[in-house]
């Protein structure tokens, strides 16, 4: 509609189109405006959700805790897998004072850079949240992360248990069975 040089030509074209379709001009104009709005927001490109993020759940937990310092104590509920490369970052952010400046931290420069990037990502993506929403999302992410960490550990124990049975080591098998039972309890706690 904006491409018509004059309102007279636009009105004429609308009249012709409306009569061709057997509708009134206002309906045609309304449908066109709705189409324009749909075209402004690409169909395949929705707002990025946490699940679609390029960052791991642990990194997202760190980012939210950086953006909302008041909820940093929630990071103490996070179960970190043994092979998680973000263990050091979680420890740093968990113990970071609320008003700490990242640039002034005396830590490994690579960790400082990674934490800085997460802080920028969180500022860009989570700054519109209020504290209660941030706490709720962090708790949800912590629950999912904990569940994954426990399941990973359970699988490792099951494999070791299977190997101990095949090797005929009843003492090791009993020890692993006890460990597995503890993991089951921990897994139930992680689900809550």
Features:
mainly alpha; 7 helices; 192 residues; 66% helix; elongated
Please, how many helices?
Answer: 7
Give the terminus-to-terminus CA distance.
Answer: 55 Å
Q: What fraction of residues sit in β-strands? A: under 5%
Q: Give the C-alpha Rg.
A: 28 Å
Approximately how much helix is present in the residues? Answer: 55-70%
User: In one word, what is the shape?
Assistant: elongated
Q: Spans of 5+ residues with little confidence (pLDDT < 50)?
A: 43-48
Multimerization state: single chain
The pLDDT mean sits at 81
* Secondary-structure class: mainly alpha
Could you walk me through the main structural features you see in this protein, from its secondary elements to its overall organization?
- The chain has helices at about 5-20, 25-40, 55-65, 85-95, 110-125, 130-165, 170-190.
- It is mainly alpha-helical.
- Helix 1 (about 5-20) crosses helix 2 (about 25-40).
- The protein is elongated and about 90 Å long.
- It starts with 6 loop residues before the first helix and ends with a helix.
- The model is unreliable at about 45-50 (pLDDT under 50).
Task: Give a brief description.
This protein has 192 residues and is mainly alpha-helical. Helix content is 66%, strand content 0%.
